[in-house]
Amino acid sequence: MKALAYEKAHPLDAFAISLDDIAEPEPRDGDLLVEVRAIGINPGETAIRQTRSADPGGRVVLGWEFAGVVVATGPATAGFAVGDRVMGTGDITRDGGWAERVAVDHRVVATIADELTFADAASLPIGVLTAWEALFRDQDTLPAGVENVLVIGGAGGVGSMATQLLKAWTSAFVISTASRPESREWATAMGADLVVDHHVDLATQLRGAGIDDVDLVFSTSDTGRRLASIVEVLRPFGHLAFIDSPGQLDVETFVGKSLSLHSEMVFSKIVAGRDASSQGRILARSADDVVAGRLRPIVTTTLRGLTPETMRTAHTLVETRRTIGKTVITL
Ligand SMILES: NC(=O)c1ccc[n+]([C@@H]2O[C@H](COP(=O)([O-])OP(=O)(O)OC[C@H]3O[C@@H](n4cnc5c(N)ncnc54)[C@H](OP(=O)(O)O)[C@@H]3O)[C@@H](O)[C@H]2O)c1
């Protein structure tokens, strides 16, 4: 089958992903074989392209956000049938879905309704799961007493879904950050009650809006460099949930306010093989929410065709770190 693959880790200006003929995936008992129809592109994948090389003689196939059609079901995949329209993620330790077909653990897949396009569906899984787990942990609800949330990076792929999930499923007041007119407009469209600028002092802007402190900060970018500002705006016993790689965090500063720190890695369950089916349930619920109008897909750029050119364009966009919503490639 055809797949977009590469051999050696490389930077964008030496882009080396090519369309190759590779062996068909070999599904495990718990896998679905899915014909891929659309893929979402994430900063994490462009980061892995820069750091992960294939074993000698091998190829790396990235891509852990897709929508498509089930073409085969393993013996341990109850609840799915050939022909089902689905969306899902995958396992970063296995080949991904930048290919005509992907073998994927059924526990991180959900069926989607006919009215949801493949492109729209492919914009959801990573944002929904990352935001859900960072905000609601394994409790399916915000920590007790959280009534307002500051979403840093509110126009990005994950921030967009965090804002939407908070407005759909909680009564929290949501403050999002965005630094440009178009990203401010998008953050507002995602449901933010207030938008502030992440390049301007946060505490000053919040005080200007009559907000003394916040209960939970959901941070998608620059968490390490912005830590002092985050600690400054959090109330005692507040929470910081972060999803980026912040480097060394000085948690000494947390002690004075008895703050809690929540990390999140969307693949931690599937890699550990524990409770992965909770992700399938969250995806199924979000697919229902889209059909019911409680959530909206976040595609802003659609590129057509599984080609090195579309993939290079997608990586170029994502690496600007100034995209709004999600870039999707349709097959
Ligand atoms: N832990 C996990 O499992 C997980 C899962 C998914 C993603 N991630 C990571 O989470 C981060 C966000 O992912 P994403 O898909 O939402 O990214 P994204 O879509 O590329 O985010 C783009 C947005 O980030 C905002 N931004 C840029 N620089 C910023 C800064 N210094 N401070 C605050 N916001 C800034 C931009 O807003 P303006 O244009 O308005 O400035 C832009 O709208 C990435 O580092 C990604 O690798 C982690």
UniProtKB/TrEMBL annotation:
Matches recorded under InterPro entries: ADH-like_C, ADH-like_N, ADH_Zn_typ-1, ER, GroES-like_sf, NAD(P)-bd_dom_sf, Zinc-ADH_QOR/CCCR
Q: Which organism is it from?
A: Pseudonocardia cypriaca
Q: Which SMART domains match?
A: PKS_ER
> Which superkingdom does the taxonomy of this entry point to?
Bacteria
Q: What is this protein called?
A: Zinc-type alcohol dehydrogenase-like protein
User: Which family is annotated?
Assistant: Belongs to the zinc-containing alcohol dehydrogenase family. Quinone oxidoreductase subfamily.
**Pfam families (UniProt xref):** ADH_N, ADH_zinc_N
The keyword Cytoplasm is annotated on this UniProt entry: no
Q: Where is the signal peptide?
A: none
One annotated GO molecular function is: zinc ion binding
Sorted alphabetically, which keywords does the UniProt record give? Metal-binding, NADP, Oxidoreductase, Zinc
- Tell me the ranges covered by the Enoyl reductase (ER) domain, including all copies: 10-329
> Which CDD domains does the UniProt record give?
AL_MDR
